[in-house]
């Protein structure tokens, strides 16, 4: 498919895409705000005189990944101004905490030629930084037209994603070829990016290891743990749903009944819009549920439902061990590094293709255990409860695992500064 045909099809689908925004806004009102920005119509601008770095963090996971990179960039260039863009409501909500006076935040425009050109003309960034995987053909072309260096930071490219892009070579070649460079997480990511047409690729590690611990969130996690009493705490983190099947249901079906009598189960779904359905599922199973937003767990609470944003490190600090969602279903997994950074050992399901190397390194370090199915998840979690020495060793291994792989944020920040100088 050519970029022209792609743009025509995108434009034809635009009314449906806009209608879906309003549908999503029923549950997440932020989707209904600033809709003109999606079409390249902007009002706010960053203020000040320093260089402007536009950084695109599509959703919540990318915002979390961007934080250590932004902090390292500000250490390297204190005068830098930030334009932070997103596509999802959770990303935009979380991104507010990364802004400083003089910065700006906006929706990234839809990938159509004129909205992308209006976006670049309005803000005039000195360099663009895409986090992890967000490459768009018309956006990349507009950056070449506007002479804005476009970098792919903390880049990852799974074998599955690379195969999909390869099937659309008419789009992949100009999109990836337009990038000024990529900083890949692993050698495998770098090789796939080169095959897709990126010319300047370096291996720079994963900036997620550099996310600094937040003492306030750690203290909050300890407070929650005290409220749980003497019971062990097991966490189901970033659980997801696909095709009407939820990981929560799969895990509840496989959970040994006696286990629930001795633990506090904490469930934190990945997407806020699923909270009501997950709560209904738990209550339909006859479980005594309390929401984080309503109050702390007490002695009668069987399941504490995490319905807050930005507190994931506190949930990990609270837990004895965690299952990382998006991995029982073929969704690629979620960020396991955040759990290990809090010393929380991890069980992960068979579908972790978005974090292949992190899983492999975590398994090698003794911080991560793979599980073939939901029953195996509970078997591993329960064994840690039954073997305190093994759990303590996994806790220490998780902390050491993160310490051993820090440094990528400073490397990639220096790379962005070099692009600014160029």
Strand content: 15-25%
In spatial order, strands of the major sheet run: 3-2-1-4-5-6-7
**Average pLDDT reading:** 94
Alpha-carbon distance between the two ends: 33 Å
Instruction: Report the CATH superfamily of the largest domain.
Output: 3-Deoxy-D-manno-octulosonic-acid transferase, N-terminal domain
CATH-assigned fold name of the largest domain: Rossmann fold
Largest sheet: 7 strands, parallel
Number of strands: 16
- The best one-word shape is globular
**By helix and strand content, what is the structural category?**
alpha/beta
| Number of individual domains | 2
Task: Summarize the topology.
Blueprint: H1 3-25, H2 35-38, E1 52-56, H3 60-76, E2 81-86, H4 89-95, E3 104-107, H5 113-123, E4 127-131, H6 137-146, E5 150-155, H7 159-167, H8 169-177, E6 181-184, H9 187-196, E7 201-203, H10 215-228, E8 233-239, E9 241-242, E10 245-246, H11 247-254, H12 257-260, E11 264-269, H13 275-284, E12 289-291, E13 303-305, H14 312-318, E14 321-324, H15 337-341, E15 346-348, H16 356-365, E16 368-370, H17 374-386, H18 388-403, H19 408-421
Parallel strand pairs: 1-2, 1-4, 2-3, 4-5, 5-6, 6-7, 8-11, 8-14, 11-13, 12-13, 14-15, 15-16
Antiparallel strand pairs: 9-10
Helix pairs in contact: 3-4, 3-19, 5-6, 6-8, 7-9, 10-14, 11-17, 17-18
């Amino acid at each position: 498919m050519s970029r022209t045909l792609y743009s025509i099809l995108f434009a034809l689908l635009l009314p449906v895409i806009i209608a879906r925004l309003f549908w999503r806004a029923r549950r997440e009102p932020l989707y209904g705000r600033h809709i003109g920005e999606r079409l390249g119509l902007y009002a706010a601008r960053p203020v000040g005189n320093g260089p402007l770095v536009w950084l695109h963090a599509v959703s919540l996971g990318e915002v979390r990944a961007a934080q250590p990179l932004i902090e390292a960039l500000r250490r390297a260039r204190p005068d830098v101004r930030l334009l932070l863009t997103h596509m999802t409501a959770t990303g935009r909500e979380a991104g507010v905490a990364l802004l400083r006076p003089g910065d700006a935040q906006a929706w990234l425009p839809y990938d159509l030629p004129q909205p992308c050109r209006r976006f670049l003309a309005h803000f005039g960034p000195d360099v663009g930084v895409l986090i992890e995987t967000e490459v768009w053909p018309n956006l990349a072309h507009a950056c070449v037209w506007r002479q804005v260096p476009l970098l792919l930071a903390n880049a990852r490219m799974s074998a599955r994603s690379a195969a999909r892009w390869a099937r659309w070579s008419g789009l992949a070649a100009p999109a990836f070829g337009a990038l000024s460079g990529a900083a890949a997480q692993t050698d495998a990511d770098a090789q796939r990016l080169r095959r897709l047409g990126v010319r300047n690729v370096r291996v720079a590690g994963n900036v997620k290891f550099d996310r600094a611990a937040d003492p306030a969130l750690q203290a909050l996690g300890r407070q929650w743990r005290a409220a749980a009493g003497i019971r062990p705490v097991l966490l189901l983190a970033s659980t997801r749903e696909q095709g009407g099947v939820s990981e929560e249901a799969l895990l509840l079906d496989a959970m040994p009944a006696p286990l629930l009598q001795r633990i506090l189960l904490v469930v934190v779904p990945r997407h806020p819009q699923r909270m009501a359905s997950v709560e209904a599922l738990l209550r339909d199973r006859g479980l005594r549920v309390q929401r984080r937003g309503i109050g702390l767990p007490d002695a009668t609470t069987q399941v504490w439902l995490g319905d807050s944003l930005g507190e994931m490190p506190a949930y990990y600090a609270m837990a004895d061990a965690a299952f990382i969602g998006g991995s029982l279903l073929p969704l690629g997994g979620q960020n396991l590094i955040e759990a290990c950074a809090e010393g929380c050992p991890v069980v992960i399901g068979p579908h972790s293709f978005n974090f292949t190397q992190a899983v492999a390194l975590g398994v090698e370090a003794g911080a991560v255990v793979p599980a073939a199915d939901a029953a195996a998840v509970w078997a591993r979690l329960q064994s840690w409860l039954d073997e305190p020495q093994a759990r303590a060793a996994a806790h220490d291994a998780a902390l050491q695992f993160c310490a051993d792989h820090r440094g990528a944020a400073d490397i990639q920040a220096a790379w962005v500064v070099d692009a600014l100088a160029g």
